[in-house]
Protein backbone atom coordinates (compact mmCIF):
# COMPACT_ATOMS: atom_id res chain seq x y z
CA UNK A 1 0.00 0.00 0.00
CA UNK A 2 2.75 2.44 0.93
CA UNK A 3 4.48 1.89 -2.40
CA UNK A 4 1.29 2.53 -4.36
CA UNK A 5 0.69 5.70 -2.40
CA UNK A 6 4.16 7.03 -3.23
CA UNK A 7 3.63 6.38 -6.95
CA UNK A 8 0.34 8.27 -6.82
CA UNK A 9 2.00 11.20 -5.08
CA UNK A 10 4.72 11.42 -7.72
CA UNK A 11 2.20 11.26 -10.56
CA UNK A 12 0.11 14.03 -9.03
CA UNK A 13 3.18 16.19 -8.37
CA UNK A 14 4.55 16.07 -11.93
CA UNK A 15 1.66 17.80 -13.76
CA UNK A 16 1.31 20.28 -10.89
CA UNK A 17 4.90 21.49 -11.05
CA UNK A 18 6.57 21.93 -14.42
CA UNK A 19 10.38 22.27 -14.48
CA UNK A 20 9.95 26.03 -14.95
CA UNK A 21 7.57 26.30 -11.99
CA UNK A 22 9.93 24.22 -9.88
CA UNK A 23 12.75 26.64 -10.67
CA UNK A 24 10.71 29.73 -9.84
CA UNK A 25 9.50 28.05 -6.65
CA UNK A 26 13.08 27.37 -5.62
CA UNK A 27 14.03 30.99 -6.33
CA UNK A 28 11.01 32.22 -4.36
CA UNK A 29 12.04 29.99 -1.46
CA UNK A 30 15.56 31.40 -1.57
CA UNK A 31 14.23 34.96 -1.56
CA UNK A 32 11.82 34.14 1.27
CA UNK A 33 14.66 32.80 3.42
CA UNK A 34 16.66 35.94 2.60
CA UNK A 35 13.77 38.23 3.53
CA UNK A 36 12.69 36.45 6.74
CA UNK A 37 15.82 37.27 8.80
CA UNK A 38 15.56 40.93 7.77
CA UNK A 39 11.91 41.13 8.80
CA UNK A 40 12.40 39.34 12.13
CA UNK A 41 15.12 41.87 12.99
Summarize the structure.
This protein is mainly alpha-helical. It has 2 helices and no strands.
Per DSSP, the total helix count is 2
> What percent strand?
under 5%
Largest sheet: none
Number of strands: 0
Structural category is: mainly alpha
Shape: rod-shaped
Kindly state the percentage of residues in helix: over 70%
Low-confidence stretches: none
Order of helices and strands: HH
Return Rg in Å.
15 Å
Mean pLDDT: 66
- Domain count, please report it: 1
Tell me the distance between the termini: 46 Å
Structure description:
The protein has 41 residues and is an all-alpha fold. It has one domain. It has helices at 2-16, 19-40. The longest helix has 22 residues, at 19-40. It is rod-shaped, with a radius of gyration of 15 Å. The relative contact order is 0.09. The model has no long low-confidence stretch (mean pLDDT 66).
